[in-house]
Structure formats: C-alpha cells, structure tokens
Amino acid sequence: MSVISNLRRVIFGGVAVLSVSGAWTVAYAQLDMVKARQAAMKSFSADGKAIADYIKGPGDKEAAIKAANDYGVVAAQLSKMWPKGTSAADMPGVSKAKPAVWADGAKFTVYFSAMAADSKRLADKIKTGSPLDVRAASAAFAMDNCVSCHSTYRETQ
C-alpha cells in the first residue's frame, strides 16, 4: 500500500470522524437548548406560586412583584431558545414544540414580547391593586400568554 493511499485513508477517516462528532455536537446542543427552555418554562411555576400565595394571603407582596417581573425576564430569554431542529417532530419524546413555531416565525416570537409587557402590567397591578384585582389580572395574564401560546404551539401532553 502506498503512502498516498494510507494518507487518503487517514484524511477521509478523520473527516468522517469530525463529521460524526460535529453532528453529535449539534444534537447535544439542541438537546441542551430544549432542556434549557423547559427549565425556563418550569420556573414560571415558582413565579405563579408566589403570586398565588399573595392572592390567597398571607403571601409576600414584594415576592409577588418580583415573580411578575421574572415572567418578563424569562420571556426575553425564551425568545432566543428555539433553534430549528428542536420540534416534537425532530425530537420525539424530548420536545413538545409544534413545527408551527418555525413555520409562523415572527408571529410566534410576538408572544414573548407581549408576555414581557404583560408581566410589567401584572407587577403594577400587584403594587397598586387588591389581591382580588391581582387574581383577575393573573388569570388574564395566564390566558393571554401561557394558554394562548401553548394551545397553538405546544403538543398536548
């Protein structure tokens, strides 16, 4: 076997290994992104609990305000966590995102900017309103943001 033949095998073998390892790197990066956005969504549960505790009493008003503001901060982060290739069709059993997320593009990302604005209004309502006012504002926030987006862009459980 010639030196050139051996060199070709080494080069092509190296390219194949790099291609496979590159594909694995992309797959792991996508998996990490899906897990990160799922963790971000789960953080909303703690925020919702802080607001619910305030509504029911004797929850901490400052904790509820912080929680409402956290919705907006996390929404801004979430808007960047949807790389192509991370839908439920691409990653069955891992992702619950419908392909419509990418098909609708800008329409989908509007949910996050709306959520950020709505979270400020909710925080203001907590600052100035009664717990009964906050209950109504919190329910509207959930319907306008969480339920509306999930019903359109998330696969059912």
Write a concise keyword list for the protein shown above:
157 residues; mainly alpha
Description of the structure:
There is one protein chain. This protein is mainly α. It has a single domain (35-153), classed as Up-down Bundle (Four Helix Bundle (Hemerythrin (Met), subunit A)), CATH 1.20.120.10. It is 78% helix and 0% strand. The chain is built from 5 helices and no strands. The longest helix is centred in the N-terminal third of the chain and has 54 residues, at 3-56. The chain is elongated and about 45 Å long.
Brief digest:
The chain has 157 residues and is mainly alpha-helical.
Helical stretch count?
5
Helix/strand-derived category reads mainly alpha
Instruction: Give the biggest sheet.
Output: none
Secondary-structure element order, N to C? HHHHH
Structural domain count: 1
> Cα-atom Rg, whole angstroms?
22 Å
- Tertiary shape: elongated
CATH class: Mainly Alpha
Percent in helix: over 70%
Mean pLDDT: 88
Low-confidence stretches: 10-24
Q: Determine the N-to-C terminus distance.
A: 58 Å
Strand residue content: under 5%
Q: What do we call the CATH topology?
A: Four Helix Bundle (Hemerythrin (Met), subunit A)
Please provide the count of β strands: 0
Which second-level CATH architecture applies? Answer: Up-down Bundle
